[in-house]
Amino acid sequence: MNKQHLYTTLFLALSSAYLSACSTAASDMPRLNEAQQKQLASERAGHLRQTHVRFNALDKDEDGYISRAEFNRSGDLAFERMDTNKDGVLSAADPKPEPRGEDTRSEQTRQQQAQRTEQPRRERLLKMPTTHSVEGMLAMYDSNKDGVISREEYAKGRAAQFAATDANGDGQLSYDEYVAEFAGRLDHQISQTGKKAD
Questions:
Q1: Residue 67's beta-bridge partner residues?
Q2: Which residues contact 61 (CB under 8 A, 6 or more apart)?
């Protein structure tokens, strides 16, 4: 069995278990109607599919683990990209970064995506902070809530995130650890979503 097939098999097995748990969690939230519960489960599944993509992107040496060096490299690149005014901190003063690279989508893909954006899009129920925006970075790493993330604060937050994800403490992140940590954050956000609906 090759590595890609193994990852896909693991991903599908984990996703199935997580979706089952999500269905149970969603049914425990009577404040969300049935359509909202289904939407939440669908959005959760989509987020979990993205963990597979992110894991492979971080695992540069393709050994099946994310080393601390690979994790740090990704974090450093994210900080540099979001620090658009190059003042060494992240804050609302940083303008939105330019899109990455050239558009490599096919003409057919561009047209399909353009058609989808013309249609009204339902509002997402499950909103997760992301390192693709300053707002997301602030939500994740601004520990003292002063609206600014220094390099030191960011490094401490990233170190804590790595340690929390590295369940067996071996200094590297397995696929299972990576998915489990993110699934935990998803479930926390789902519980918050249910409370907001009250």
A1: 172
A2: 67, 70
φ, ψ of residue 150 to 5 degrees: the values are: -80, 165
Site of tokens 């057919």: 108
Residues 119, 126: contact at Cβ < 8 Å? Answer: no
- Helices assigned H by DSSP within 28-125: 34-58, 68-82, 107-118
In this structure, what token pair is assigned to residue 26?
A: 């969603």
Comparing CA positions, the residue from 123, 120, 119 lying closest to residue 40 is 123
Q: How far is CA 74 from CA 44, 138, 156, in A?
A: 24, 17, 15
- Residues 154, 47: contact at Cβ < 8 Å? no
Report pTM. Answer: 0.69
Contact assessment for residue 192 and residue 26, using Cβ atoms and an 8 Å cutoff: no
Q: What is the pLDDT of residues 56-80, one digit of tens each?
A: 999 999 999 999 999 999 999 999 9
Length of the chain (residues): 198
Q: Is the pLDDT of residue 91 over 50?
A: yes
Any idea of the CA torsion for 17, 23, 29, 35, to the nearest 10 degrees?
140
